[in-house]
Amino acid sequence: MNNKIELKGKCLCGAVKYKLSEKPLFTQACHCKDCKILTGSSYVINSSVLENTLITEGEISSTIKLQAGSGKSVRIFFCNKCGSYIYTDYESAIGRLNVRTKTLEKSEEFPPQAHIFTKDKDEWVNLSNINNCFEKMYDPKETWPKESIIRIKEYLNTKK
Ligand SMILES: [Zn+2]
Ligand SMILES: [Zn+2]
Which ligand is the nearest neighbour of the Cα of 43? Predict the structure, then answer.
């Protein structure tokens, strides 16, 4: 299995650029109320990546610790100059970071593989033809591709 790849992304003004040295583990859309406020939109799309595969350049700041739906904390990292959100660090997602999928150059190659918190979904967002919709959260072991489960497990083992 070869996950090595080079994906590029950037903020709106270009001051922050980043690379992913491996493909994301999983991409999902979240329709929860917090993500609506954070994005000013109906939902956010995040790609979960192994923390050591994200290499950024340029000046990035982070928000204060915010409370995530899990009850644990989350920090969001953004470009100092234009404020584009680049990635999110959920305390609950050990060993992983969540890149804002749409900051990737080829973001169309990573459509959401699941939609979560659809209980808060806006009425005009139609997911009737979409599989993997969840009222709230799901169990990754049942929803993520097996290879992604193996990759995160192997990565966490190397950190022990
Ligand atoms: Zn910027
Ligand atoms: Zn959310």
Answer: 2
Q: Where are the domains of the chain?
A: 4-159
- Tell me which ligand sits closest to the C-alpha of residue 79: 1
Q: In angstroms, what is the span from residue 58 Cα to ligand 1's centroid?
A: 9
Please give the distance, rounded to the nearest whole angstrom, from the Cα atom of residue 94 to the centre of ligand 1.
Answer: 27
* DSSP tally for the chain: helices H, then strands E: 3, 11
Whether the predicted model's global pTM rises above the 0.90 cut: yes
Q: Of the ligands numbered here, which is closest to the C-alpha atom of 68?
A: 2
- Say if domain 4-159 classifies as CATH 3.20.20.150: no
Around Cβ 3, how many Cβ atoms within 10 Å? Answer: 14
Q: What is the pLDDT along the chain (160 residues), one digit of tens a residue?
A: 567 788 999 999 999 999 999 999 999 999 999 999 999 999 999 999 999 999 999 999 999 999 987 789 999 999 999 999 999 999 999 999 999 999 999 999 999 999 999 999 999 999 999 999 999 999 999 999 999 999 999 999 998 8
Residue 135 Cα to ligand 1 midpoint, Å, equals 34
DSSP state of 126: -
Q: Are the C-beta atoms of 92 and 101 separated by less than 8 Å?
A: no
